[in-house]
């Protein structure tokens, strides 16, 4: 009898959502440097590294447990991309989740008691999201969006003397883009969510109203960016934000209004991730 092949390392890597982790590294790195006025000596080592690793492992653990608890839904929504119970057993996935969770707590408590407790709380909330809140009307979307916004605030943990890092403003920016993207993902996953008897916004109110909700959130984003441009009085920030955030939003209006198929919504939610990157990069000019 042929020996069963062990799962390749690459499947564990895919479970971690490397693109999302890359955005977290970019966000925290930029805001640490911005809050320290781009002075490496103003960073508190090794706390800056520990807080970054704590956030990365906490997020990674959340991604893995989400895939473990979403097996039935993923069979319908993305059968070709499914990893748990296809390339990696549920047992192996749970062991991997446990290792990531322990790592997040270790680095969290190495940073400090408060950071360790925050990591523990977020891990519980992410598990609760995957097991219960994900199928509710917007509550799960709000939770994920808040988590992404909080990442901006974590960046201050590794800075000794903090300058104006625009933490609240960029946390709100991350919240708005993430919430819009989460609603688009719910439109994309409509069939699988129906099979699991979820009550997401697109299921209860339909894709059309969900599209208008996304457009409303993106409009709030543009208003927020205009406020930042006016407040900062920085020409380079204004030019960058206009070209790479304000104007692309109008392109998303068109895409959202014309999208009909699942593949089109998949493309939109992926491109919204790049809008997030553009928004985060704009802090360089402040």
Give a quick set of tags describing it:
Tetracycline Repressor, domain 2; mainly alpha; Four Helix Bundle (Hemerythrin (Met), subunit A); 286 residues; 2 domains; single chain; globular
Query: Could you say which structural class the secondary elements and strand pairing correspond to?
Result: mainly alpha
Low-confidence stretches: none
> According to CATH, what is the class of the largest domain?
Mainly Alpha
State which percent range the strand residues make up. Answer: under 5%
Number of helical segments with 4 or more residues: 12
Major sheet summary line: none
Mean pLDDT: 89
Work out the helicity level.
over 70%
Enter the CATH topology name of the largest domain. Tetracycline Repressor, domain 2
Number of extended strands: 0
Element order, helices and strands?
HHHHHHHHHHHH
Summed up, the domain count is 2
Approximate shape: globular
How are the elements arranged and paired?
Layout: H1 9-15, H2 18-35, H3 47-69, H4 71-77, H5 90-111, H6 113-131, H7 139-154, H8 167-188, H9 190-195, H10 201-232, H11 235-258, H12 262-281
Helix pairs in contact: 2-3, 2-12, 3-5, 3-6, 5-6, 6-7, 7-8, 8-10, 8-12, 10-11, 11-12
């Amino acid at each position: 009898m042929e020996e069963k092949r062990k799962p390749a390392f690459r499947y564990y890597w895919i479970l971690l959502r490397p693109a999302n982790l890359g955005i977290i590294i970019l966000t925290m790195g930029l805001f640490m440097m911005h809050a320290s006025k781009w002075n490496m000596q103003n960073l508190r080592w090794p706390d800056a590294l520990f807080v970054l690793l704590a956030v990365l492992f906490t997020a990674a653990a959340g991604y893995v447990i989400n895939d473990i608890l979403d097996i039935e839904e993923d069979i319908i929504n993305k059968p070709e991309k499914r990893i748990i119970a296809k390339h990696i057993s549920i047992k192996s996935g749970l062991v991997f989740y446990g290792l990531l969770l322990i790592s997040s707590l270790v680095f969290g408590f190495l940073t400090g008691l408060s950071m360790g407790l925050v990591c523990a709380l977020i891990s519980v909330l992410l598990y609760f999201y995957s097991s219960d809140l994900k199928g509710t009307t917007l509550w799960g979307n709000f939770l994920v969006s808040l988590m992404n916004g909080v990442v901006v605030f974590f960046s201050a943990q590794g800075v000794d003397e903090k300058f104006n890092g625009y933490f609240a403003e960029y946390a709100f920016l991350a919240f708005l883009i993430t919430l819009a993207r989460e609603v688009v993902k719910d439109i994309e996953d409509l069939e699988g969510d129906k099979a699991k008897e979820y009550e997401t916004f697109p299921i209860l109110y339909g894709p059309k109203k969900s599209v208008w909700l996304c457009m409303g959130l993106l409009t709030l984003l543009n208003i927020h960016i205009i406020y930042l441009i006016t407040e900062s009085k920085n020409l380079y920030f204004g030019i960058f934000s206009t070209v790479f955030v304000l104007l692309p939003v109008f392109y998303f209006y068109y895409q959202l209004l014309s999208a009909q198929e699942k593949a089109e919504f998949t493309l939109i939610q992926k491109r919204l991730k790049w809008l997030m990157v553009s928004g985060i990069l704009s802090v360089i000019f402040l």
